[in-house]
């Protein structure tokens, strides 16, 4: 297995190089040159496997010769030891052929733990082989940064740089970020939104200022962020259909990594009949699927804050697949998007996406109504992000005969205040912690200031 860049060129890398990276050398994203394809019989034979064994079957072809089998098996098994449910990601039935895949039983109670826990162990292993020091860098509006912070807390040879919107992180999450060891973690509040943070990180990775320090992205621009999600589709489909029955998925669009992963899982042979991209009022992905118009825009603050942005890095990988791995076309499209903030793909490629994907945007009143309705009818409490996916899945499912699985990405307890207000949550709502004083913030395009701060910290560290 080898990897290439979504933007073509002569880039060619093995799995180890991809793990220890931010972006490809030409500014694109690393993608496998080809996908492993499994037969229906092979996939069906996995239905009895425990979770870590299934992970090995799905992940090992992507690792190739970069790691021996026994080491990889042990690493994968260890990646899920801090999850607090014996099923790792259990399924909860909420209606006729309607299910929630609970992805919030990891150490920080969000789906971001799947990628972060796997990535930290892969980085530790490969960094031990090549030696040197790495800076784990990325942007967050809460969940992604906290998952990375927890996962890399004891990873030798690494430090972290986390960018976040100055006024866009919940108080309790901000307090958790600011409680990190300042000797290992640099925090950079940015005077802008999450999209501005993402853009600044991408520019940083393309203009890396630290000689001798390996830049590694903890966002899903790193291929591990997608790979960890592919497994989740296989797990759910095998539980509900044994690998032979078509299954649909509704994915609250807190990341385009899940969308890309679903498309790839189907190409690998999994019988997925539909992926619904469910959004809140920040509907950039909905507009892309529904109208073939994707653009960055001002993000609204909603009840589902993990989806309050419009810049989706993994859309580039999805477009690369839709264009049949044509790197030159993808490069032209993405450079146009980076220049003007708008993107439309060819009609043939858009129709290819629509064969699998539908989309729906859910407004705030619908979110509240769905949380209350589901609790009254099933006794299940769900957070607003999951409510977005559940409603979209119910409205837009193509087949009542195929199970519809919503990705439940965040634990209900994280939305205790809202659930209590709606009469759903029955336990005491935790008080909001005090917020520490924030460090000086960066202007949303201040790459020079960010680079200078990293250089100064590196000199102190040395």
Structural commentary:
Belongs to the threonine synthase family. This is Threonine synthase. Keywords: Lyase, Pyridoxal phosphate. Helix 3 (51-63) crosses helix 9, helix 5 packs across helix 6 (143-151) and helix 5 (112-130) packs across helix 9. The chain has a domain at 87-108 and 226-421: Rossmann fold (3-Layer(aba) Sandwich), CATH 3.40.50. The chain has 18 helices and 15 strands. The strands form 4 sheets. Strands 3-4-14-9-10-13 form a 6-stranded mixed sheet. Strands 8-5-6-7-15 form a 5-stranded parallel sheet, with helices on both faces. Strands 1-2 form a two-stranded antiparallel sheet. It is globular, with a radius of gyration of 21 Å. Strand 3 (91-95) and strand 4 form a beta hairpin. The chain has 462 residues and is an alpha/beta fold. The protein has helices at 15-19, 40-44, 51-63, 69-79, 112-130, 143-151, 171-178, 194-206, 224-241, 257-267, 284-291, 315-322, 327-340, 347-356, 364-378, 384-396, 416-421, 447-461, and strands spanning 3-5, 30-32, 91-95, 98-102, 133-139, 158-165, 185-191, 213-217, 247-252, 272-279, 294-295, 342-343, 357-361, 404-408, 442-443.
Largest sheet: 6 strands, mixed
Number-wise, the strands total: 15
What is the CATH architecture term of one domain? Answer: 3-Layer(aba) Sandwich
Strand content: 15-25%
Low-confidence stretches: none
**Quick one: overall form?**
globular
Q: Helix count? A: 18
N-to-C span: 37 Å
Query: What percent of the residues sit in helical stretches (DSSP H or I)?
Result: 40-55%
What is the CATH class designation of one domain? Alpha Beta
Q: State the CATH topology of one domain.
A: Rossmann fold
Mean pLDDT equals 92
Radius of gyration: 21 Å
Enzyme class: lyase
Cofactor: pyridoxal 5'-phosphate
InterPro entries: Thr_synth_N, Thr_synth_N_sf, Thr_synthase-like, Threonine_Synthase, TrpB-like_PALP, TrpB-like_PALP_sf
Organism: Pseudomonas wuhanensis
């Amino acid at each position: 297995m080898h990897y290439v860049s979504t933007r073509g060129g002569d880039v060619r890398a093995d799995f180890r190089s991809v793990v220890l990276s931010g972006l490809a050398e030409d500014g694109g994203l690393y993608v496998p040159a080809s996908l492993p394809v499994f037969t229906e019989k092979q996939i069906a034979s996995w239905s009895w496997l425990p979770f870590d064994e299934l992970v090995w079957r799905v992940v090992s072809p992507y690792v190739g010769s970069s790691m021996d089998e026994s080491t990889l098996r042990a690493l994968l098994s260890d990646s899920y030891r801090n999850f607090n449910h014996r099923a790792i990601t259990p399924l909860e039935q909420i209606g006729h052929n309607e299910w929630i895949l609970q992805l919030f039983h990891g150490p920080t109670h969000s789906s971001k733990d799947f990628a972060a826990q796997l990535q930290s162990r892969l980085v530790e292993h490969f960094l031990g082989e090549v030696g040197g020091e790495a800076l784990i860098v990325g942007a967050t509006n809460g969940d992604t940064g906290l998952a990375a912070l927890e996962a890399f807390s004891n990873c030798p040879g690494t430090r972290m740089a986390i960018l976040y919107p100055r006024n866009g992180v919940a108080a309790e999450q901000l307090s958790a970020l600011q409680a990190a060891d300042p000797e290992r973690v640099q925090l950079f509040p940015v005077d802008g939104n999450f999209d501005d943070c993402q853009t600044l990180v991408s520019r940083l990775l393309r203009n890396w200022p630290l000689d001798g320090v390996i830049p590694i992205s903890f966002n899903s621009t790193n291929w591990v962020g997608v790979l960890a999600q592919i497994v989740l589709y296989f797990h759910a489909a095998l539980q509900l259909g044994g690998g032979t029955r078509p299954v649909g998925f509704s994915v609250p669009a807190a990341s385009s990594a899940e969308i890309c992963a679903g498309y790839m899982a189907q190409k690998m042979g999994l019988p997925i009949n539909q992926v619904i991209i469910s959004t809140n009022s920040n509907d950039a992905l909905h507009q892309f699927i529904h109208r073939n118009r994707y653009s960055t825009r001002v993000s609204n603050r909603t009840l589902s804050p993990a989806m309050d942005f419009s810049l989706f890095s993994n859309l580039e990988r999805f477009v690369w697949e839709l264009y049949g791995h044509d790197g030159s076309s993808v490069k032209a499209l993405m450079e146009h998007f980076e220049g003007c903030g708008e993107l439309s793909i060819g009609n043939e490629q858009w129709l290819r996406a629509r064969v699998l994907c539908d989309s729906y945007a859910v407004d705030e009143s619908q979110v509240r109504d769905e949380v209350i309705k589901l609790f009254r009818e099933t006794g299940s409490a769900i957070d607003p992000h999951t409510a977005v996916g559940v409603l979209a899945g119910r409205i837009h499912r193509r087949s009542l005969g195929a199970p519809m699985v919503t990705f439940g990405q965040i634990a209900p307890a994280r939305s205790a205040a809202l659930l209590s207000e709606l009469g759903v949550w029955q336990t005491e709502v935790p008080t909001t912690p005090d917020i520490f004083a924030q460090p000086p913030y960066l202007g949303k395009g201040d790459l020079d200031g960010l680079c200078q701060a990293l250089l100064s910290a590196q000199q102190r560290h040395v």
